[in-house]
Amino acid sequence: MDVIRAWYDSNKKIRIVVALRTSCWADSRGLHMRRDLCYLKRKCVGFNFLDEDSRCVGPEEVVPRVVNLNEVPDGEYEVVIVNHKYDWESGMLEDYDYKLVPVTEQSERSKDGDRTRG
Fold first, then answer.
1. Where in the chain are the domains?
2. How far apart are CA 50 and CA 56, in angstroms?
3. Which of 81, 5, 4, 13 has the alpha carbon at shortest distance from 44?
4. Residues in Cβ contact with 5 at an 8 Å cutoff, skipping those fewer than 6 apart
5. Residues 6+ apart with CB under 8 A from 52
6. 63's torsion region: left (phi>0), alpha (psi -120 to 50) or beta?
7. Which end of the chain has less neighbouring CB within 10 Å, N or C?
8. pLDDT tens digits, residue range 6-57?
9. pLDDT level of residue 72 (50, 70, 90 thresholds)
10. Quick one: pLDDT at residue 3?
């Protein structure tokens, strides 16, 4: 959790961009539906806290924390931290959730900052 606090305090120098894809298929056992969150590594910047959390506590704990996963259509999204809860004694970040925010061309340009393309 200290890593998340450092990220939050460092003026958002970390950026996690994912592609959300839904697939449906049928086979002899039934109908199936699956949603995938795939990291877009070339668009990600810095420490990937989503990957770290899924490795530490498991994806079965992380996926339910994405508050709008079932509400958004397929596409590219930036993962942001929402619903911060701090310990009242120490002030340390204790709990949080994730939210998928659509990536627009304008937001990509503003996040690129001083990086050059070419």
1. 2-109
2. 10
3. 13
4. 92, 93
5. 3
6. alpha
7. C
8. 555 555 578 899 999 999 999 999 999 999 999 999 998 888 888 998 999 9
9. very high
10. 57
